[in-house]
Design goal:
Number of strands of chain B: 0
Strand content of chain A: 15-25%
Shape of chain B: globular
Order of helices and strands of chain A: HHHHHEEEEEEEEEEEH
Number of helices of chain A: 6
Radius of gyration of chain A: 20 Å
CATH architecture of the largest domain in chain B: Orthogonal Bundle
Strand content of chain B: under 5%
Radius of gyration of chain B: 17 Å
Helix content of chain A: 25-40%
Largest sheet of chain A: 6 strands, antiparallel
CATH topology of chain A: Jelly Rolls
Number of strands of chain A: 11
CATH architecture of chain A: Sandwich
Structural class of chain B: mainly alpha
Largest sheet of chain B: none
Distance between the termini of chain A: 40 Å
Number of domains of chain A: 1
Oligomer: heterodimer
Strand order of the largest sheet of chain A: 1-2-3-11-5-8
CATH class of chain A: Mainly Beta
Chain lengths: ~220, ~160
Amino acid sequence: MKPHHHLDDSTLIGYSAGALPAAFRVVVSAHLSICQSCRERMLDADAVGGQLISLQEGAAMSAAARNDIMRRLGERSTPPSMTATANRTLDPHVLPRPLWPYFGETYSDLRWRTIGPGVHHIRSRHVDDGHLMLLRIAPGRCVPMHTHGGNELTMILQGAYDDSLGHFAPGDVADLDSDVEHQPVTSPGVPCVCVAATDLPLRFSGWLARTLQPFFKL
Amino acid sequence: MRIYDHYAPRLLRYLLSLKVAQAQAEELVQETMLRLWRRADLFDARRASLATWLFRIARNLYIDSIRGEPHWLDIQEGLDWLDRTTPEDDASSTEAFTDHVGLSRAIDQLPATQARLIRMSYFEAKSHSEIAHELGMPLGSVKSNLRRAFAKLQAGLRGSS
């Protein structure tokens, strides 16, 4: 299963540059963990960073730095064990590895909160730069027509939805410009579960923000 | 030590441009070089240049320590691990990323606005919204300019510009 909707180039640059708000970094990492083509494009963005560093003049390190590094290179170190266990594809029971620190490991352990008819959500409290949340929307539901007032990045984890931009299935990301107007309709069958980042102050428009507004009472 | 003498001052300049204090920036440079050395198993010259790899390590340490994201390094190692090539992989199957003359030229030739947005991203770690606010530019224009810049830089990287 390969995703059909990928990260925008401007998002790749922001991630590579360390310039994305934390909530967005998490969603990007989750998509990267299952999308080789975006990882390859990310390597291009990192090459830009590397080249920019190479092209500039250096700044002087303090006099002791060189001896310090010689000494430390000679020290014995225990390399961290290679315990990376990222999944290459989406698992129906296990969240993508980059989401674990924020939501836990398995879907069955998630504690959903109802925020409206057919809409559940979990907000991660471990991110203080932007808002990071899981959303679960009942099958066959129509989300009101909306545009995005700020940045919103959504990755589909389970289920699917359709809008004028196409069919969004597990692994796909909706990385939309603020002026795109769309009206997602979740597919019949299973609920649509997605992870989303937004940098909106919650009182502004944006469908996630509006969906969440009653919950936050803003 | 040639690698150290060449890259340490450049990495320091990078971290200082991100507004990391001098002493901490120097420590992050040292840590970057040590990691390059100790995690040499993750470095794959067929996938990325040394400069690219050092940039990634320095950027990751910056996000981990300055932006205070305790899970960032683990997540990045997990992602690197996915694309590890095994020794039996055929070298010719991966694209060589050794020559970046084309990329340098593409960077030099970026239109002024695009060059500025790229620099604000990489050297100031400004988000798209922050750039839009600072330059009084619509968010959509910031993104579309970055997109156009990236297309040119990728073309340079592939040697087709």
